[in-house]
Glutamyl-tRNA reductase
Amino acid sequence: MFPITVGLNHRTAPVEIREKVSFHPSQVNKALAELNTLSALNGVVLLNTCNRLEIYAATPEVESGVSAIRSFLARHGNLQEEDLSQYLYVHGLYESVRHLFRVVAGLDSMVMGETQILGQVAEAYDRSSQMNASNKVIHTIFQNALAIGKRVRAETQIDQHPTSVSYTAVELAKQTFGDVKDKSILIMGAGEMSALTAKHLVANGASTVMVSNRSFQRAQTLAQEFSGKAIPFEDIDTALVETDIVISATAANHFVILPERMQRVMKLREYRSLLMIDIAVPRDIHPGVNECEGVTLFDIDDLRGVVDAHQKAREDAAIQAEKILEEEMGRFMKWHNSLFAVPTIIALQRRGEQVRDVMVKNALNKLGPIDAKQEKVIRSMANSIVTHLLHPPIANLKEVAHTSQGHLYTEILQNLFDLDVDQESPHAGRSVHHAVGHHSNQG
């Protein structure tokens, strides 16, 4: 079973493409269930965030597995496969595992070291497990990835420097205005991203925080948490006239704010400057709004250019984190290759014994009556032939088992000798750390 990853993120695809293939929270379970029915896949995790959509899977045949996922994403996004493929990245076997390790460590994020991704990966893995969409390979990889994510944060303190998309959005507002102190803020949406944004705004001295959401009760709950004001969604135009900064992070799957609406709002504002930051995927604010007089609009991709005071500290922590990941990758490769090497050696020895027993029996039948000493010599010679014949492939397999070629070597050996290998190794469900005797300093 081979691990693979197919996905796109903020580096490979613009927000216009990401929003087409992203899944609304209400769609994720259905999508995962559909992926789980694909015959080319055996174990699936769907990771869907504002900056990435990735499908991790185990497959008996890499090309078929990748093709199945590409077709699935193209259908979902109503795109031609050839058009979508230019934005996708594909990782197989160890590169798939390495990629996941970098994701959970926060090293593959728009904002290096971001704090939310570890929880998002854990949630995606838990959902897969609850829906019986996982398998032993996926379980092991994700359990170890989450442990590594925690280890990186414990040993590097990379998460001690506030980082997230919402934090960076506030940094962008500060860089635009010089300060958000005494500024009026309207937050559209009442989810986790909105709550984090409100937290950073209040910490930076925002004078008024207004929250608007389709569920007024959720808007009230979030507003009360930060001594803010809840705005009914139907009264949002009034808030748009009053506010200085809009940060939008709703879960809508369509544009909430259109240019025509903002033209009316800006006329009522007498074209007083308004900063709008759209951190939702799919986007909440139509890009044409940026053409309205007095409006400055940024979307989530614009956050990449934001530099904050903690960037140098995170870069230093990232160097240490990369060293940890290399160590963990070596441990994983050693464990993973052992899963294939040990059963292959056992199967090869068993095949040699089977051939030996058949040949000895045939020889004894042809010889007729012989004494015990003669039979012992024949059996000893047969054992010796099998042992000497199998020694080179077994020795070579042991030598390469813990290298990147180990898995390939075992597969070739299995095909050459037509081996019936028991892949359900008793070690297959164990974590890498446990299997190789790893001990960390974490509690």
About this structure: Strands lie at 2-9, 44-48, 52-59, 89-92, 184-188, 208-213, 229-232, 245-248, 274-278, 295-299. The chain has a mean pLDDT of 88. The chain has three domains: 2-160, 165-305, 326-435. The domain at 2-160 is CATH 3.30.460.30 (Beta Polymerase; domain 2).
